[in-house]
């Protein structure tokens, strides 16, 4: 029976609101969306996906995302396991940008640059559980108010994310943001780490992947885009046809961490296919659709002995992140699609995960 269930509320955090002097208590809990033998566990800390449990081609169940057993490690997590990241996902060079003659200084948290919204981005805050349902299509909606000046960004912004099981082994994610009073850049991303063989099954180099992007936005040594858009043909970045992730990874310094420019037009459902990931041992397959122009392909290059679920230690290339997004550092590259959203407009980011078994 389809249902959403509050599993646990373990931690209580108290903090002062930034638009007044009233102290507010918020609860951090763990929640579950479940339909048959397909379940998704989440927490309102960072609107984070904690686990996704799926059968394989033989019916064996496994948790296919990296994460932690308890809520406390998510508070100090630097991997962004499963979180919603923003106000602007990915990197902003020099932690600054200019708009309409005003220069905005942001909070750097990766050298001189900003990564995933700064020291206290959306992955490091307590979201409010606004709605949840245990009906035929179970869902949960988290909301967050981002205040004017948060991590240096201008304007107040109301943000929401809804996770919903929309069919047989299908999970939809809908992220929305509405600026109240100032134009501001918005680029949210969902940062789950996937290992379709199981979170504790080793590396993903034998997984097969197809990416529907014939161009990338190359980066400098600090992983900041140069502003160019170049073709992948003839390079290790070419996954226009299915190939194993490890087939050419040794030609790169560390692994994949690059934004792909998605080619396919939006379908009648206003989504485009971005990626297909398959684990050949278990037969599990993930098909990812989105309405965004870019996809960050990241092979967990910076994981180094992270203690995860059930005491398992995650090492380099233990998973792959597929982050649909606007282009990184778009605020500093006029040739990239703009991420500035003005009051009265709505930022809307949709994703659809389709799981199957072969």
Question: How does this model look, in words?
Answer:
It is a single chain. With 358 residues, the protein is an all-beta fold. 1% of the residues lie in helices and 44% in strands. It has one helix and 30 strands. The chain has one helix at 72-75; strands spanning 3-16, 23-35, 38-43, 48-55, 61-63, 83-85, 91-92, 96-99, 102-105, 114-115, 128-133, 139-146, 157-167, 170-179, 184-185, 189-191, 193-194, 208-211, 215-217, 230-231, 243-244, 257-261, 272-278, 284-290, 294-298, 306-307, 313-314, 320-325, 340-341, 347-357. The strands form eight sheets. A nine-stranded antiparallel β-sheet has the order 11-12-13-14-30-24-23-18-21, with no helix packed on it. The chain has a six-stranded antiparallel β-sheet with strand order 17-28-25-22-19-20, with no helix packed on it. The longest helix is centred in the N-terminal third of the chain and has 4 residues, at 72-75. The model is unreliable at 1-23 (pLDDT under 50).
């Amino acid at each position: 029976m389809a249902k959403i269930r509050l599993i646990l509320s373990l931690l209580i955090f108290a903090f002062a609101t930034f638009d007044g002097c009233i102290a507010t208590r918020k609860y951090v809990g763990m929640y579950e969306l479940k339909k048959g033998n397909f379940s998704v566990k989440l927490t309102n800390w960072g609107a984070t996906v904690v686990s996704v449990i799926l059968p394989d081609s033989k019916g064996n169940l496994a948790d296919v995302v990296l994460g932690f057993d308890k809520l406390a490690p998510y508070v100090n997590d630097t991997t962004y396991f499963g979180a919603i990241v923003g106000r602007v996902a990915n990197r902003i060079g020099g932690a600054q940008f200019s708009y309409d003659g005003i220069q905005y200084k942001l909070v750097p948290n990766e050298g001189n640059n900003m990564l995933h919204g700064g020291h206290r981005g959306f992955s490091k805050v307590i979201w409010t559980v606004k709605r949840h349902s245990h009906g035929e299509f179970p869902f949960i909606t988290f909301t967050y108010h981002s205040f004017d000046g948060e991590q240096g960004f201008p304007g107040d912004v109301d943000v929401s994310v809804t996770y919903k099981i929309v069919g047989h082994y299908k999970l939809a994610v809908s992220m929305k943001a509405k600026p109240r009073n100032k134009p501001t850049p918005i680029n949210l991303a969902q940062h789950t780490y996937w290992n379709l063989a199981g979170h504790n099954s080793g590396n993903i180099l034998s997984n097969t992947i197809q990416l529907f992007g014939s161009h990338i936005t190359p980066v400098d040594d600090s992983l900041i885009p140069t502003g160019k858009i170049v073709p992948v043909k003839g390079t290790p970045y070419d996954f226009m046809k299915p190939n194993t992730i490890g087939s050419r990874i040794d030609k790169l310094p560390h692994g994949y961490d690059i934004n792909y420019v998605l080619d396919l037009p939006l379908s009648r459902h206003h989504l485009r296919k971005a990626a297909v990931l398959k684990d050949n041992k278990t037969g599990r397959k993930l098909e990812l659709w989105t309405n965004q122009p870019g996809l960050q392909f990241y092979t967990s290059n910076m994981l180094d002995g992270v203690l995860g679920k059930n005491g398992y230690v995650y090492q380099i290339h233990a998973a792959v992140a597929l982050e649909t997004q606007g282009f990184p550092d778009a605020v500093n590259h006029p040739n990239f699609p703009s991420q500035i959203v003005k009051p009265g407009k709505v930022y809307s980011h949709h994703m659809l995960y389709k799981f199957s078994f072969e």
